[in-house]
Write a structure and sequence with these properties.
mainly alpha
Length: 253
């Protein structure tokens, strides 16, 4: 149980760290941001396949791999539905030229919905992490924790930047950032609880978590890293992220 607590607190701390950067830095170069996001995407890609989907298949066996396939489809459908109901999360970092002008065709309502969309995505991310701690391989669980924690840094930053630009007070912005971190923290415990309810459902839950991560990668993170002319650097960083994740999964925690 101590592992799940540490994991949950780590994800929340990473999100708050990103928010702290948002209070300090007004602008981060797109090149640096795309490289970092590419590295995070690589780690999440490796985690989704190796730590979640393959772990589920290993638990279910060849005869039960259909459970994982259904889980992957359900995870993709869940995040796709969330995207349909909330603003799209392209331009994840919110650091483009237009983002620094409150009158740049972006209403207060749209910015608040954008922040809400990020908050909603945090819960399934936390669940994906919590579910892995019910599996057979704790090293895989920590690999997922590390990959999502790294991704939380730029996401924490995007929560703060647009709110400050539209005039939300620093205190209220801080409270919003804290609330979003808590949402992910709760998601970790919910995922852990659901995975512990039934070993029979665990392969499908692992597949669902992996499918959700794959959707976010393809639909949000990778397009964002290729949108500013630094796609090659982002691709190299993605490959590096995959390799680092594979090394992390072989480490003993």
């Amino acid at each position: 149980m101590s592992d799940i607590v540490i994991s949950a607190l780590s994800l929340a701390a990473a999100s708050l760290l990103g928010s702290a950067f948002g209070f300090i830095f007004k602008r981060i170069p797109h090149k640096l941001n795309d490289i970092f996001l590419g590295f995070c995407a690589g780690m999440m890609l490796g985690a989704a396949v190796v730590c979640l989907i393959l772990e589920g298949i290993e638990m279910a066996g060849a005869a039960g791999c259909w459970e994982v396939i259904i889980g992957v489809a359900a995870g993709v459908a869940l995040i796709s539905s969330i995207d349909f109901l909330t603003p799209h999360l392209h331009n994840l970092t919110g650091l483009g030229e237009m983002e620094h002008h409150p009158d740049a065709n972006r209403s207060v309502g749209r910015i608040l919905l954008f922040v809400l969309a990020i908050a909603i995505h945090k819960f399934p991310e936390g669940m994906a992490t919590g579910i892995t701690f019910d599996g057979h391989n704790v090293d895989n669980a920590w690999a997922v924790t590390i990959s999502i924690a790294l991704q939380n840094v730029p996401e924490g930053l995007v929560v703060v930047t647009p709110l400050l630009l539209i005039g939300v007070s620093r205190l209220r912005t801080l409270l919003v950032a804290f609330a979003i971190a808590v949402i992910e923290l709760l998601g970790v415990f919910v995922g852990y609880f659901l995975g512990g309810l039934s070993v029979v459902l665990l392969p499908a839950l692992l597949g669902g978590a992996g499918g959700a991560m794959l959707y976010l990668l393809s639909d949000e993170m990778i397009p964002e890293t290729h949108a500013h002319g630094f796609q090659k650097q982002a691709t190299y960083a993605l490959v590096a992220g995959v390799m680092v994740l594979l090394i992390v999964t072989r480490m003993e925690f």
